[in-house]
Amino acid sequence: MNSTKKLLFSKRNISAKRCIIILMLMLTSVVYGQTDTVRIGKHDPMTAEKLYNEGISLFSKEEYPAAMQKFSEAIYNRSDFYQAFYNRGIVKDIMKDYNGAIEDYNRALILKPRDPQTLLARGKAWLALNNLESAKGDFSRALEVDKKMHLAYYYRGVVNFMTGKYDDAILDFSETINLKPDHAYAYNDRGSCKLKLGDLDAAASDYLQAVVMDPTMFFSYNNLGTVRKEQGKYEEAAEYFSTAIRIRNDYAEAYNNRGVVRIFSEKFEDAIKDFNKAIELNPDMISAYNNRGNAKYKLNDFKGAIEDYNLVITKEPENGSAYLNRGISKEMMRNTKGAEEDWRKAVSLGVKEAEEFLKK
């Protein structure tokens, strides 16, 4: 027997979820200032206006709980204060109280039913709660009112990507770029759609444009590395992963991904160093343990490889690839019975490659 048998790298080593779409639920909604028209309400509109302005001042200082309290007091003094409901929703959004934010946006929309900014804000709150259907509905309604709202196209594109509608997502990201040509995230995410569709050159072109627009976008360099890895350009891929690491030195995914291409380049010891760093930064990164085991296997350190596969199985008992790989390492140590047990377990978990080992 030899040590050239095929190992399975974790399918998440350069995963689509991790390296493609980066959902940045940024505070892009407008915070209404004192220049907005104030209508007389039921209680004390002058007091409400004063409290509202105090809330805006606190918001600008990022004193969010205090700002929320002022907006609540403004609403108490004026029950039809649209801007106060909207801005209190924004504060709750920032504080990750997405359900509370949606309640305030609902109240704001009762007062101003087709306001595109409120629809956009509520859509983003739905998105944060992973209610994709409601999110997409709000983004589409915002666009019915304002067809030039580039952020509504962008976030609808995100939803389309997350639901596997890559062609529709490309249309939305393209419209975002048409309306705002320097929108780096739209280039990145359109590239991710093209990557999913297998158009590697077009994906790389969009990722490159993203880093032209914003050279600090470390995840776009990571995505470029993914493209070059898929194209078999391992040295170039490693360079892109290294660039991502230079920009953000705690980026565990890039260390893991660089380790993978270093295995393909037969730089096994360097690969192990990368996997060690990825694990140091993120001890729960299952793929890094699996991949480190693969690198140790390539160095004929079968015992060390088995130890890593054991860690994978302990953390994720249904990981079929780890059972397959552990079985291969056990066979190399002449533990045929243990190897066959692992391969049978891998087959039960849906790893078809393990069937071939059982036939031998």
Notable traits:
disordered N terminus, mainly alpha, 360 residues, 0% strand, 20 helices, Serine Threonine Protein Phosphatase 5, Tetratricopeptide repeat
Explain this structure.
The structure is a single chain. The protein is mostly helical and 360 residues long. It has a domain at 152-214: Alpha Horseshoe (Serine Threonine Protein Phosphatase 5, Tetratricopeptide repeat), CATH 1.25.40. It contains 20 helices and no strands. It has helices at 16-19, 45-60, 64-77, 82-94, 98-111, 116-128, 132-145, 150-162, 166-179, 184-196, 200-213, 218-230, 234-247, 252-264, 268-281, 286-298, 302-315, 320-332, 336-348, 353-359. α4 packs antiparallel against α5 (98-111), α6 (116-128) runs antiparallel to α7 and α13 packs antiparallel against α14. The radius of gyration is 26 Å and the shape is elongated.
Uncertain segments are 1-5, 11-41
Order of helices and strands: HHHHHHHHHHHHHHHHHHHH
What overall geometry do the principal axes of the alpha carbons give?
A: elongated
Q: Any idea what the radius of gyration is? A: 26 Å
Helix content: over 70%
